[in-house]
Amino acid sequence: MREKIFIQVARSRPFEPRPEVPALEMAGGFKDYSSRVRALDGLELRVEPGEIFGLIGPNGAGKSTAIRIAATLLKPSSGEVRVWGRDVVGEQAEVRRVISYLPEEAGTYENLTGEEYLRFMARFHAGDVESAVKRGARIADLGERIKSRTKEYSRGMKRRLLGISPTPLGMALLASTLLLSFVSALSLAVLLATFTKDVRSAQSLMAVVYIPIMVPAVVLMFSPVSSLPLAVQAAVLAIPFSYPIIASQALYTHQYLTVALGLVYQALFTMGVLALAARIFSTEKILTARLELGRMGRAPAEKL
CA-to-CA distance for 114 and 146, rounded, in angstroms? Predict the structure, then answer.
């Protein structure tokens, strides 16, 4: 069993979690599938905020059942289960907005057609259901097979329906973005090195410069750029090293326009930096700033 449930504080909070309230609490959890099959027998557990909690046990012990009840996918036969103090039965919508559920194997409902499955999933989210279905069908690119039952799909077709099958275009854009990011980093290093007096100073300067440059890329690992405030989006998109993360996300969202524009921006940035570095190196006299990090004073500039 490898199901995982992530209980988080969502950006658009339906309620304000309190630190004294447990992230997950199950009291007397019972689940009967029939009069002869009891999957959970009075489970008691409490997960505090910030705690990483794992369920360990043999097959059939009820681990998956417990997690699916906490994820609002199953109703307990009896007992009480709360996420951030909210009941998973009576307040499903609010609970679902602050959890993420990762099953052992993503699957589809076999008796639904591909189109019906997309419509079913779209109803879990606010917005125009039909436009979401059309966009999902376009991403899956199954043609007329989108109207077939998913039990007739191959594994590859199911992956495309679930949006977890990268396309050749997405892979090509990601590879191009990674290559340009590498060249951009080298060109920036060459330019900054012209303003230092030795290798040690250059290394120190690059270490300081790259910290604020790489922070936005780390932010994008946890939040898509479209969900950020406009001012933050502009700052992130202005940094060329953010685009490999954006390109990796586009493998599954299939939103390639930002990646394509990013490639153009990366190319222009790299050419500009290289042109500036070449102009500095081509002059007869190079002004060296001799920046020495860690010292209070500035080294006097000199002409070579």
Answer: 5
CA neighbor of 285 nearest in space, from 268, 303, 270: 303
CATH assignment of 4-102?
3.40.50.300
**Number of helices followed by number of strands (H, E) in the chain:** 10, 8
Residue 5's DSSP bridge partners are 101
For tokens 């969900």, the residue is: 227
Is 101:3 a contact under the CB 8 Å cutoff? yes
**Structure tokens belonging to residue 226:** 């479209």
State residue 268's pLDDT score. Answer: 92
Cα–Cα distance between 150 and 147 in angstroms, integer?
Answer: 9
**∠ Cα 151 156 158 (to 5°):** 40
pTM for this entry: 0.49
Q: Which residues pair with 7 in a beta bridge?
A: 99
Pairing state between β 24-32 and 38-47: antiparallel
Picking from 162, 170, 172, 180, the residue whose alpha carbon sits closest to that of residue 240 is: 180
Overall size of the chain counted in residues = 304
- Return phi, psi of residue 101, to 5°: -125, 125
Please write the tens of the pLDDT for every residue from 40-88: 888 888 988 888 888 888 777 888 888 888 888 888 888 889 988 889 8
Residue 102 has φ and ψ, to the nearest 5°, of -120, 105
| Residue ranges with strand state E in 72-228 | 78-83, 86-87, 99-102
Asked whether 266 and 180 are in contact (CB, 8 A), the reply is yes
CATH 3.40.50.300 occupies which residues in the chain? 4-102
The rounded distance, in Å, linking the Cα atoms of 146 and 161 is: 8
Per the structure block, which two tokens stand in for 93?
A: 């919508």
Q: Which H or E run includes 32?
A: strand 24-32
35, two tokens:
């009069």
